[in-house]
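I hope you will forgive my troubling you with a question about protein structure. The full record is reproduced below for your convenience:

——
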Amino acid sequence: MYQIRVARLNDCEPIERLIQSSVRGLAVSDYSQEQIEAALVRAWGLDTQLIKDETYFVVENDEALVACGGWSFRQTLFGNDSESARNAAVADPRDGAAKIRAFFVHPDHARQGIGSMLMQKCEAEAIEYGFRKLELMATLPGKRFYERHGFQPGNPIDYELDQGLVIEFVPMTKCISDR
């Protein structure tokens, strides 16, 4: 049985391993091995600010982490702790968007509703915080998941990883309230 809980700082290493397993197992049909390995260093990974803000969650099955993901009330759209362009400023819920951040599921537990469980939790908390809009930067495999949850894609972007190597991401948005 899957259980969701708020991530803690002592979860960082298991979360990083989970992210690596997820990407290496689920992104291979959309990205090259070279892109995956570079993105694990430069773009994908844990942003510990989410844990400190208590807006990042893990899903456990028999005490093993099988998924993670969260939302943020801050300006940063995506990236890990090594991303220098992160913006920790708080977004105004009246005209800003909450950010859906860093959803990863272990390949052995994919397509079992875990991501949807995380999405419901994140949307509910963002609404409670006062947000009316969500935005995210999707990976290509993530884009299909987010579209099923009502997100609308924008124009794809090429994100530079290292020495001319790029990876395609898709910005996406969703209205969550008519308040």
User: Anything to note?
Assistant: Residues 2-132 form a domain with the Aminopeptidase fold (CATH 3.40.630.30).
